[in-house]
Design goal:
Strand content of chain A: under 5%
Membrane topology (chain A): Multi-pass membrane protein
Order of helices and strands of chain A: HHHHHHHHHHHHHH
Structural class of chain A: mainly alpha
Largest interface: A-B, 7 and 7 residues
Subcellular location (chain A): Cell membrane
Shape of chain B: elongated
Oligomer: heterodimer
Largest sheet of chain B: none
Radius of gyration of chain B: 18 Å
InterPro entries (chain A): CPA3_antiporter_subunitB (IPR050622), MnhB (IPR007182), MrpA_C/MbhD (IPR025383), MrpA_C/MbhE (IPR046806)
Shape of chain A: globular
Family (chain A): Belongs to the CPA3 antiporters (TC 2.A.63) subunit B family.
Pfam families (chain A): MbhD (PF13244), MbhE (PF20501), MnhB (PF04039)
Chain lengths: 330, 112
């Protein structure tokens, strides 16, 4: 049964990937990439990796197509230059793909108990994390505590991304008094969409908070929560306009928050060092090591959530501001 | 099988049938509006039937509450998405495919 599911999901993935490569309509390609994300999320669920599936569903199928749509709104729906079907590029891709397939022959079978991944540190995580960390969701233990250093790196990458986007696009936020272009106003005339989104924005934010603080017990955590929270604000911005969103959200505060999340994460590590343990060793945060782990994980997940949410909103606002700027120049 | 399981099995079968028929309709119908009719209506009802079937299996647990929330979310978002899609198709100038006859009671506008 699972084999059947795997085969059908994987063949749909392949079909979607080919569709993305062939399509000349960039809007369709972005839609397909969103479907690709959803399919991979399903695939991860069949592999029992629900946390990864959650991330893929919220990031791969949710926010990244949204940001790509915002990009398409700026650059246009169709490729300006015709497709170049360069033979050397195709050869290179086929060769790389063949080598990758060849390499998979050496990979141990999925779920093989003797695989290196299963014999190295995984037994310790599985056997000891219950007593060392003391939270039910082992994935969060690994992500936030055992591999806290890596996650710190990931948050820094997310922060660096927004610094890059803002450096490239500048702070082209709409100045006061500037009106939205007609096309955007038309979109905001959808009465049904506006009413339904008004009903849904608050529950989506509540759900984001649930995902944020329930990450210790079930699938979830700062990355997913941040993206979901930002999605709620972005929906509001899409339907009610940038000016309405700016009344609620101050961009300067968002920029400070994006940096604050990373800072919060790093300072947990520094506090651990000041208490005489290693960087990001949460044992040092409280008299009881397990309590220390709990505090540490909650605080760093909060840092991750704040940074991710702020970064996603900032990138969207930068794109939207650019769009308004362009429509004024033309 | 207990009665609850039988009810659940029937609902799941109905839901699966509706989703499948929606998928076939999406492939077979000729234009955007009839395809949306197939996908939107059967998908909403199909998802509702499947969720109801799962609810009967779940019993009085937290899973039931979560399923109800998913149901509410789908009931809000599904029709909204269909509506938006239809409106977008209409605004971009897609005419519904007709058999050439004018619809009864609407003699003012001819079908193109």
């Amino acid at each position: 049964m699972e084999l059947l599911l795997d085969i059908s999901l994987l063949s749909m993935l392949v079909a979607t990937a080919i569709g993305i490569a062939v399509s000349r309509d960039l809007l369709a390609a972005v839609m397909l990439s969103s479907i690709y994300g959803l399919l991979s999320a399903n695939f991860f669920v069949t592999m029992d990796a629900v946390d990864v599936a959650f991330t893929e569903a919220s990031v791969g199928a949710g926010i990244s197509p949204l940001l790509m749509f915002a990009t398409l709104a700026i650059v246009g729906r169709f490729e300006r230059y015709p497709h170049q079907r360069a033979l050397p590029a195709l050869l290179l891709v086929v060769l790389t793909g063949a080598m990758l397939i060849l390499a998979t022959l050496d990979i141990p079978a999925f779920g093989d108990p003797n695989a290196p991944a299963q014999t190295h540190v995984a037994p310790r995580f599985i056997n000891e994390s219950g007593t060392e960390i003391g939270i039910p969701n082992m994935v969060t233990s690994v992500l936030a505590s055992y591999r806290g250093f890596d996650t710190f790196g990931e948050v820094t990458v997310v922060f660096a991304a927004v610094v890059g986007v803002l450096a490239l696009l500048g702070s082209s936020l709409p100045a006061a008094g500037r009106k939205l272009p007609d096309t955007l106003l038309q979109a905001s005339n959808h009465r049904i969409l506006r009413i339904v989104s008004k009903i849904l924005v608050a529950p989506i934010m509540l759900f984001a908070l649930y995902v944020q603080f329930h990450g210790d017990y079930g699938p979830g955590g700062g990355f997913q929560a941040g993206v979901i929270f930002a999605a709620a604000i972005i929906i509001y911005t899409m339907l009610f306009g940038l000016e309405a969103a700016m009344k609620v959200i101050n961009v300067t505060v968002l920029r400070v928050l994006a940096a604050f999340g990373v800072l919060l994460y790093g300072s947990v590590g520094l506090v651990a060092m000041l208490n005489g343990k290693n960087f990001l060793d949460y044992d040092a945060l409280a008299a009881d090591p397990v309590h220390g782990q709990h505090y540490g994980i909650i605080v760093i997940e909060l840092g991750v959530g704040i940074t991710v949410a702020a970064v996603m909103m900032l990138i969207y606002f930068a794109f939207a501001g650019r769009l308004i700027d362009r429509s004024h120049k033309s | 099988m207990s009665p609850l399981e039988i009810i659940s099995a029937v609902l799941l079968a109905i839901g699966s049938f509706l989703v499948l028929s929606g998928a076939i309709g999406l492939l077979r119908f000729p234009d955007v509006y009839s395809r949306m009719h197939a996908a939107g209506i059967t998908d909403t009802l199909g998802a509702v039937a499947i969720l109801l079937g799962l609810m009967f299996l779940a019993g009085w647990t937290l899973v039931l509450a979560k399923l109800i929330m998913i149901l509410l979310f789908l009931l809000l978002t599904g029709p909204t998405a269909s509506h938006t899609l239809g409106k977008a198709a209409w605004k971009s100038g897609l005419q519904p495919l007709t058999d050439g006859r004018e619809p009864a009671g609407d003699s003012g506008k001819g079908a193109e």
